[in-house]
Amino acid sequence: MVELVVKRLLWGIPVLWLILTLTFFLLRLAPGGPFDQDRELSPAVEQLIAEKYQLDQSLPVQYAQYLKRVVSGDLGPSFQYADLTVNQLIGLGLPVSLQIGFWALLLALLLGVALGAVAALYANRWPDTVAMLTAVIGISTPNFVIAPLLILWLAVHWQWLPVGGWSGGEWRHLVLPVVTLSLPYIAAIARLVRGSLLEILSQPFIRTAQAKGVAPSRVLLYHALRPALLPVISYLGPAAVGLMTGSVVIEQIFGIPGMGRFFVQGALNRDYTLVLGVVLVVGVMMLLFNLLVDVLYRWVDPRTVPTDAAGARG
Fold first, then answer.
1. Which of these, 223, 210, 190, 218, lies nearest to 120 by C-alpha position?
2. C-alpha to C-alpha distance for 89 and 102, rounded to whole angstroms
3. Tens-digit pLDDT profile for the chain (314 aa)?
4. What's the farthest any 2 CA atoms get from each other in the chain?
5. Residue 122 half-sphere exposure, CB side, CA atoms within 13 Å?
6. Are 165 and 255 in contact (CB under 8 A)?
7. Domains plus CATH for the chain?
8. 27 neighbors 272 (Cβ within 8 angstroms)
9. Is the Cβ–Cβ distance between 279 and 23 less than 8 Å?
10. From the CB of residue 204, how many other CB atoms can be counted at a distance below 10 Å?
């Protein structure tokens, strides 16, 4: 297990370097710049700004200096937020996105597994039909459609919850974004659990337990559910990153100051260092969550070789 962790961490270094390098040069190739404005600046002012942010140097020199700062843990100054560094902006946005993502992931796991289990136990009957129809609707309906509907019903019409805002993470402000963010993942997990459980329930060891008179609930919880969760565990890596880093759409609609919102603003304003910082954090989280998934995969099924499972998922 230790060898697996060390190997994955070492492999993560060139992966992060490649992601950062591609993002750095693609941003520089994009039209426009961080200080392009409707009114022209004087040459002297432009020169001072370029010197301050080292934009007057060649691209390879800028790249080398940026990598040197990143290695030391400094993600650089923000081009658009003059009084804040990228480290400070990520420090403000990441905890917000993580909090929303954690509750959304927990809700998706609980409801998705429960919905999938009900569908498998009542396969080809009306509970299965209702559960899978709900799952299809959840997967096919985008967040930017679900969010306004929930706001209209729960916030505007019935006035049970606030329309948006953050208010320091107060629970009433968490409900709508968490539910909206988790719905597609609930649907995906429910479908995975149903398909996996149907396959597991047809295995000989399950039929043996049933023939011995073991209660159906005990067969499900103690014999079938654990192996049936393997596809869900494989899915959790990218799902957890998507949830934990927050949804750009969700944060924009509900006015949440998360990392996704900073990413959009950085991209629109050509804030190179901010975009690079967010990309780097997301890359690190992707590697860590995939590593955690592989460790969990081996714990659930020790016969599984994590590297093979990861290759199959890729």
1. 190
2. 20
3. 677 778 888 888 899 999 999 999 988 887 776 766 545 666 776 677 777 777 778 888 989 999 999 999 999 888 888 788 999 999 988 899 889 989 999 999 999 999 999 898 888 899 889 988 888 888 888 888 888 888 989 888 888 888 888 888 788 889 999 999 999 999 999 999 999 998 888 888 888 887 877 777 777 777 788 888 888 888 887 788 778 766 777 888 888 888 888 888 888 888 888 999 999 998 898 888 888 888 887 777 666 554 444 443 43
4. 87
5. 13
6. yes
7. 86-313 (1.10.3720.10)
8. yes
9. yes
10. 7
43 residue type, one letter: P
